[in-house]
Amino acid sequence: MLCGLGIFLPSKVVTNQDLSLFMETTDEWISTRTGIRERRVVERGTSTGDLAVEAGARALKSAGGEPADLVILATTTPDHPCPATAPAVAHRLGLLEAPAWDLSAVCSGFLYGLSTAAAFIAAGTARRVLLIGADTFSTIMAPADRATRPIFGDGAGAVVLRAGTAGEPGALGPTLLGSDGSLRELITVEAGGSREPLGPGDPDRPGRYFTMRGKSVFRRAVARMTEAAAEVRARAGWAPEDVDCLIAHQANRRILEAVAERLALPMERCALNLDRVGNTAAASVPLAMADAAASGQLEPGHRVLTTAYGGGVTWGAAALTWPSITPELT
């Protein structure tokens, strides 16, 4: 069950107007197509691990301060290609010798991590798990790419999970995960791995930057997020009117509206914070959770449906009952 929640956002705010100063775009063009008006961006020298440590510390404090005995960091933008970032995050949090690893499922990473954490707890291998979703996509964006740069922001969100009973607030219900590697080219950073290594003469090679085929992603994201959420809702035994809040990956307002409509949910029952933070990849779902809880949209006992779609391609959904948590927003 979920018993702690913490988030951390960089202090630097980049508005649509700021972007229009160095790329061919306008606030109206961005906001009407995505619903995003501003996003947070790390300063040079601040890493994904730095954000993860701050969010993780707040989640542990929210859960009463008891240490976790396992750490999972969902991210696409680790501090280094090697080693993984999670062990360093665990060490900085004082979770000495706790098993820790990175999980890469792009924007579905938090839900993949949620299912993984629940499995370790159910197996008795872990007692308390710190799950962090953190990304700094600004570090892998082409500086003036109008197709991607306005969409993404940086941030981190973390939760603590522990063993519990099905009737408790915070209880995790059914989960569903999926992937389709035949569509891997829809969302990708082509260069920098073992298939296309970057050499000393390739610092500005186009393949080093994130690319996304927006129209194809839009269509498939709506379909997969809806299907996964509907299946999880059915497994939980919930009718549409039983869902108090839909927390979908904050990719694009039009995607969220389409998913909500197909699930027969009014938008007032959908968490929405992308206008202020953009698409924060693996951090998206926990950041939206925190915003909904802090605003009063989420209350203890509420039935929550979550869903996400990301590169790989990957997708997932989960049901949970909301606990008594009021996170500190940054």
UniProtKB/TrEMBL annotation:
It is an enzyme of class 2 (transferase). The keyword Transferase applies. Keywords: Acyltransferase, Cytoplasm, Fatty acid biosynthesis, Fatty acid metabolism, Lipid biosynthesis, Lipid metabolism, Multifunctional enzyme, Transferase. CDD domains: KAS_III. Belongs to the thiolase-like superfamily. FabH family. Homodimer. This is Beta-ketoacyl-[acyl-carrier-protein] synthase III. The gene is fabH.
